[in-house]
Amino acid sequence: GQNIDQPTEMTATEGAIVQINCTYQTSGFNGLFWYQQHAGEAPTFLSYNVLDGLEEKGRFSSFLSRSKGYSYLLLKELQMKDSASYLCAAWDSNYQLIWGAGTKLIIKP
Amino acid sequence: GAVVSQHPSWVICKSGTSVKIECRSLDFQATTMFWYRQFPKQSLMLMATSNEGSKATYEQGVEKDKFLINHASLTLSTLTVTSAHPEDSSFYICSARVVPGGTGGGITDTQYFGPGTRLTVL
Fold first, then answer.
1. pLDDT by residue (tens digit) across A53-93?
2. Most distant CA pair in chain A, distance
3. What pLDDT shows up at residue B1?
4. Contact map slice: A 28-47 vs B, CB within 8 A
5. Looking at beta carbons, which residues of chain A come within 8 Å of B59?
6. What is the distance between the alpha carbons of residues A83 and A17, in angstroms, rounded to a whole number?
């Protein structure tokens, strides 16, 4: 079956760095997405990786290893507004988006 | 670019009535739109894939006669919850697929989400 695993909840301190991991098992693979979702709001697009390696975009970076079925989202210089759920999702061979359950990130002062 | 809107943002209705939710791509054409439902503290659940000019493809367990989807144009898809019941109360979110080279100008094949519609059925 197809599956996305990510931690349920993480806690980090304002100004610090946090890494949110995601492992995936899909029928074929056409890329991996990270979305941010604040409570009561729709998800917003953060990143897309289809090739191995690290993609940096400001304070956020996303990494992909296709051979390991593994990705992580790295958040630097954490701010209180980064408190949200972070959703990992992968395109399968039919471009069906398979979603993880999300990681709730709690930022403490 | 790649802005998706939804209307209404929230709706409260009586059990047994029907509710229509609109999803629009404001600055690009979307041949494919997706409808999701999200219950509190749960992840997104794909309900159906809507392709312009053709019938929607529903996920297993989603009643197509209850959740009517129409994608009549490249910028508009609608979801109608018919004979709504309290258990249909949820956060409904649409998204539109942006394909590289399309009018959205995206460089990656991705989805952009509307702001969501919170439905409460009394």
1. 999 989 999 999 999 999 999 999 999 999 999 999 998 88
2. 43
3. 60
4. 30-31, 33, 35, 40-45
5. none
6. 13
